Amino acid sequence: MLRKIDMMVKKIILLFLLLGPLVAIAQQDPLFTQYTFNKLLVNPAYAGSREATNVTLLSRTQWVNIDGAPQTYTLSVHTAMNSKKIGLGFYVYRDILGPTVRSGLMGTYAYRLLFPKSSLSFGIQLGLKHSDFDWAAMNLKDENDVIFSAQDVRKIIPDMNLGIYYQSSRFFAGLSSKQLLENEIDMSKATDANSFSKLTRHFYLMAGTAIPLENKMVLRPSALAKYTSNAPVQFDFNASLFFGHSFMIGASYRTMEAITFLSEIALTESIKLGYSYDIYLNELQPFNYGSHEIRLEFDLGLKGTRMRTPRYF
Fold this sequence. Notes:
Shape: globular
Oligomer: single chain
Radius of gyration: 20 Å
Number of strands: 17
């Protein structure tokens, strides 16, 4: 019976993949090149999917050499409870774009259906987002412009994300939506009018597989589709080559945006260091030196245990 349900789940996921162009996201949500190693930031149903408590630190510096370019810092933690059917976690982030500063804390709950060789998870994230504006970072030609006069525009709003995630030892797929509440964030107040921005709903569809090769090498192709209203669908196509469990190199292509080179090295059995570098193909290319992303990942609680299958997701 479980095997039939497992096969049905795979067919449903393949149907979603065929409908990929209908699924998506926008740049309002922070961009991550190493999304396959940090899925909790994209899909809440990923919580508890590893056989350890996972802690991931990530720093992204985008468009080096451009003043006010995006900078993003995140910390994520997730684990499975003793029953393995419940996944819990959270992540915090700080996203800086010019004078705009956004930060947040999102708590995660996932319920997992366990099959003999795979799992299907349903996840929800609830939390708060804080927005602020650093007026000191503004370089104005007219210091008396009422639109840009210093004022307190700080605001805290609730938010919610949902996701579904399927994983086996050789395949993963997930569908998620973020910023479901689409709350408004006031940015300035001039005369009798308010100028505000609105969080837009984002959609993500991801999938990948692990293909064993000779000499303990494994090829892991993956893809991510991103969409939000009033923006074109964006795709990330990635191919990573693992050399045993000690080293990985890879490359990806982001449609109409960039090509990326990735690497990862296992410092110990439970600590991994990842790095990626983006080269842009759009009109910004002559004015920046690319983007850097550094990731430090810990799998706690591995001592005295053995993973049932090698982990590539």
